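Write out the 3D structure for:
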Amino acid sequence: MAERVDHYFNALTEPSRSCLLYLRDFVLGFSDKITEQRKNNTPFYYFNGKWFCFISFHPKTLKIYVSFVEGFKIEHPKLVSEGRKKMKIFPIDPEQDIDVKSLGSILEAAISLIAKNNTRS
């Protein structure tokens, strides 16, 4: 499975490839409970087996973002809905440094939502 995800990233051109590889490492390194799967040609990330975000890259517009499944429950100035009802995205410009402080706090909030939901089950 990891081979399929690696191929997804390695098939891209710069600067998108470097940006996406950095995002991948950042998300996977955030917690040892985060795993990765490729579905519908997109890298999906799970925390304790629960889907919580994915990295999206649009090859025509070159737009990159991290989409959070329960984003509508997270309040953060860098998250935008762009008309989505549940998900919110963290847009990224591959030509700029990534705001890892904001991304880290959003990842923390998304993981907290999963942990909170697991305690209710």
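Residues 100-120 form the longest helix (21 residues).
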